[in-house]
Amino acid sequence: MKIQVGIAGASGRIGKILCELIEQSSDLELSCGFVSEKSEYANDKFNTTCEKSDIWIDFSTPDAFETVLTHCIETKTPLVTGTTGLTKKHFKDIEKAAVYIPILWASNFSISINLIQQMLTRYTKLVETNAEITEIHHIHKKDMPSGTAITLARSIKPHGIIKKETENHYQLEDINIFCKREAEIAGIHKIELDNDSEQITIEHSAKNPKIFAQGALNVARWLIKQSNGQYTMSEYIESLD
Q1: 106 phi and psi, to 5 degrees?
Q2: What is the domain range of residue 87?
Q3: 203: closest CA among 107, 112, 111?
Q4: Active-site residue 141, yes or no?
Q5: Is the predicted pLDDT of residue 141 greater than 80, yes or no?
Q6: In this structure, are 37 and 125 located in the same domain?
Q7: Residues 25 and 96 reside in one and the same domain
Q8: Are residues 147 and 63 in the same domain?
């Protein structure tokens, strides 16, 4: 029997790709789609009453996320979410939801990005260094800095508040984060580490957004087998060993 997958943000950039990949899959089936009332699909099948989903994947907006999370708690349905721009309250709500459902939030579902995060945490604990992050995304992306840039910065400096310096320049303590919005770029993240002894540059470039959608589906296949709790991409990656 196929896994019934509900998609929140089904008419969005990643949501559309998720729906396409599910249709091509042999073990997944699209059970329901949730979209904004402003979406061109608002009167389409995506807005009909949802059948029971085995798992939800959420790439919506912070406001819609609250609705999706409440629905998943009420129906005891696991949730994979990649919605960025969430507030401290949203993350507190995720912690509370973990009592009732398996839930995993990630700013990026690329395995390589998550391995880079782990490396940054390890390296900066061992070596004192300066860090700078540049992120470039398509012109449709609303949040700035990107969720991935924030996660990368917090893998180095887990505390502190991200402050806006100028329109495209932010800071987390002494880490500069520069943001650009260009054309249809799926996502580029460049991390520069510099000290008296060495300079390290790491750049990750997503060729297309399919990598994020496919990653989320793979995580969903794993999360549906887990017990209630809050999970991370690190735990998912460890399970692949």
Answers
A1: -145, 145
A2: 3-109+210-239
A3: 112
A4: yes
A5: yes
A6: no
A7: yes
A8: no
